[in-house]
Design brief:
Number of domains: 2
Strand content: 15-25%
CATH topology of the largest domain: Metallo-beta-lactamase, Chain A
Radius of gyration: 24 Å
Helix content: 25-40%
Distance between the termini: 61 Å
Number of helices: 7
CATH architecture of the largest domain: 4-Layer Sandwich
Order of helices and strands: HEEEEHHEHEEEEEEHEHEHEE
Shape: globular
CATH superfamily of the largest domain: Ribonuclease Z/Hydroxyacylglutathione hydrolase-like
CATH class of the largest domain: Alpha Beta
Length: 281
Amino acid sequence: MLNPMMSRRTLVLDATALIGALAIWGAAQAQVPAPKTEVMWLGQAAFKITTPGGKVIVTDPWLRTNPLTPPEYRKLEAFGKIDVLLVSHGHFDHIADAPALAQMYNVPLRGPGDLAQSAMTLGMLPAALLPRMNKGGTVSPAPGIQVTAVHAEHSSILVWRNPVTDKDETHPGGEPVGWIIELENGFRIYHAGDTAVFGDMKYIGERYKPDLALVPIGGNFTMDPVDAAWAVKEWLKPKAVIPMHYGTNPLAKGTAKQFVEAMGDSAVKVIVAVPGQGIGF
């Protein structure tokens, strides 16, 4: 039979040891960094966003013929998986590789509703991979992810190579959109798509309060560096901004250097991305 005093003493020691072990474990857990968001620019308006929950979001994938895309990502297999695929409008340098990625990864291509309708009518993808939505619509394309289509001031057509005639045809591309992408931890990214400055950027800034803005700066087709910087500083007011849509077309002459200079001493953090290098948030 055990000595009652010894049993109580043993229990006290065991409890003390357990409390000490839990304290050590808690301290170790506190030192483990929380999962981060990684944003990787792939040239033009193409981004690979890896969320804190490990989901992969791909935007405007012009990859295989994009001069800025790193060689490894010109191979569409490099993504491994894609959970969310977003296209802002129908121009080639935004939708080029989207149908192939949708088929390869069995992921719906989300874009302007009328662009999806044209793609469906032409047989580019089956209906299951072309869900329709429009400006103001919010969807949850993957658990914990919320995506809202917002206005963009641009144009949109879909140029399709007819396999019977082997000639290009121009079809309606719907109205262009930008995206508010909210991740599992509440981090919000505004992908502006291709756009000029427009008044509702003030609404986007006030309503969605993006943590990160991805804005075009090339000019000619979109905002130039000065206009983009003005919109970011005066209306969008994110915590950080990454310039995009420059360096691939000689008509779009805006540069990251010009954008940085136009941002001046703004409180918004300017990050000049290098294609293929992940940026943590």
